[in-house]
Amino acid sequence: MAQLKPGEVSLGTTIMAVQFEGGVVVGADSRTTTGTYIANRVTDKLTKVHDRIYCCRSGSAADTQAVADIVAYHLELYTAQHGKEPTVKVAASLFQQLCYENKNRLSAGIIIAGWDKVEGSSVYEIPLGGSIHKQPFALGGSGSVFIYGYCDKNFQLNMSKEECIEFVKNSVSLAMTRDGSSGGVIRLAVITEDNVERLLVTGDKLPEQYLG
Amino acid sequence: MSIMEYNGSAVVAMKGNNCVAIAADKRLGQRQMTIDTDFQKVFPITERTYVGLAGLATDVKTLHDRFRMRVNLYKHREERVIEPKTFANLVSHMLYEHRFGSYFVEPVIAGLDKDDQPFICNMDNIGCIDLADNFIVSGTAGENLYGTCESLWEPGLEPEELFETISQALLNAVDRDSMSGWGAVVHIITPSGVITRELKSRMD
User: Fold this and answer.
1) What integer pLDDT is reported at residue B138 of this predicted model?
2) How far apart are CA B87 and CA B106, in angstroms?
3) Alpha carbons within 13 A on the beta-carbon side of A197
4) What are the phi and psi torsion angles at A50 (to 5°)?
5) 3-state secondary structure A148-179
6) What are phi and psi of B197, to 5 degrees?
7) Does A179 touch chain B (CB under 8 A)?
8) 10 Å Cβ neighbour count for B48?
9) Low-confidence ranges of chain B (pLDDT < 50)
10) Across the strands, what pairs with B117?
């Protein structure tokens, strides 16, 4: 697996995606670092690859942007070639192929989530080696290690859309406090059959937590 | 990651009209993980001299203890309180004693001398004193602090104006550094006393 090269921009980050009946909620922090310098403090790590399919990017900013662009290109062509919209599974498979075949050269941890007519809502995680994991919820990035306990305790299957939004907000906020590579604002996207709703939670509106 | 970046820090001092200000962040980290948001980096040496220590946290604690002992001994022998310039030379000497196995700390000293004249300086890790007329920066957010201080500082600021200036300089500099922030403390040293305030900052 490739290490970040000196000077390369890193999405040291906290990303997560949660599935609910009728859609998914994806969330991320907004910090991009070059070493210790915060190169962008309002980054959008939630990238659209198709109308109802989003990916959350962590690792090398360059690698994940390049891979996401290639997948978006293929998905755009898919409808013309196949006569139907691509499923989240197809998008995740495309990501996997790129991440696995180039595993020695890429530093990319990606979460794919979205809605399609076949499966409804799905969440897939593709960590560093290029393996693929379908899960009800997924965590990624350097900040995720701080919230595994919290998420394992607080996640429940069949939560409502509002409960999922609160769950993602609280988790990402906790990770941002502890992880130096995560911070800024919390960006959320709620993907359902009907539309994609983008939400922003600024620093002053973060959930209450013990801060010493 | 260099040893000076391991714990993360941001320290800044500014001169004003018959006053000085010194401020620092409150984060203690271990590489990327934050483990304390109330870590003290600025210490009173006398009632009118403060020292801010940026760098490796274990050396920050150790050096503070060593300074305390040396300053107390000075007070007993000289029967007077140490002046900021003298303290700066003391620190410089103590650091150079470890020239080939140094403390990983870059101190910032701010104080008022016996004639109420402001004094600020900083040093590298082996004690080279850098005197300044305007402001002094140190820590992982040092480069960022140069930018904010250069644009915000002007000569002849009164204590309350100096407080606003140094607070904004620190807060906006640490917001661009992933290793510092998570709270801040500011001390304004005037002939009539020291005003200490905690700043409400981003906790990321």
Assistant:
1) 97
2) 15
3) 11
4) -160, 170
5) HHHHHHHCCCCCCHHHHHHHHHHHHHHHHHHE
6) -135, 145
7) yes
8) 23
9) none
10) none
pTM score: 0.85
Quick one: tokens of B66?
């060593």
Which residue is it, tokens 């960006």? A187
Host H or E run for residue A80: helix A61-82
Report the chain B residue with the minimal C-alpha distance to residue A6: B1
| pLDDT tens track for B51-99 | 999 999 999 999 999 999 999 999 999 999 999 999 999 999 999 999 9
Interface test with A, best of B3, B26, B203, B204 (most A CBs within 10 A): B204
Paired residues of A204 in beta bridges: none
* DSSP bridge partners of B63: none
CA distance A127 to chain B (A): 20
- Could you say which of B5, B36, B182 has the minimum Cβ distance to residue A36? B5
- Is the pLDDT score of A8 beyond 90? no
Q: Which of A13, A32, A64, A87 is catalytic?
A: A13
Q: Measure Cα distances from B109 to B11, B55, B70, B71, B94 in Å.
A: 10, 14, 16, 14, 14
Higher pLDDT among residues A7 and B196, named by residue: B196
**Is the pLDDT at A1 greater than 70, yes or no?**
no
Identify the residue whose tokens are 């399609």: A116
Reading the block at residue B158, the tokens are 């009164």
How far apart are the C-alpha atoms of A209 and A207, rounded to whole Å? 6
B153 in Cβ contact with B21 (< 8 Å):
no
Residue B171 half-sphere exposure toward CB, CA atoms < 13 A: 16
d(CA A199, CA A169): 10
**Is A13 annotated as catalytic?**
yes
Contacts of A184 (CB under 8 A, 6+ apart): A29, A30, A31, A41, A42, A43, A176, A203, B204
Contact list in B for residue A36 (CB cut-off 8 A) is 1, 5, 8, 140, 177-179
Distance between CA atoms of residues B34 and B28, nearest Å:
6
The partner residues of B197 in beta bridges, in order of sequence, read B186
Lookup: tokens for B174: 């640490």
Are residues A37 and B204, on separate chains, in Cβ contact within 8 Å?
no
**Cβ-contact A182, A13 below 8 angstroms:** yes
**Confidence at residue A156, expressed as pLDDT on a 0 to 100 scale:** 95
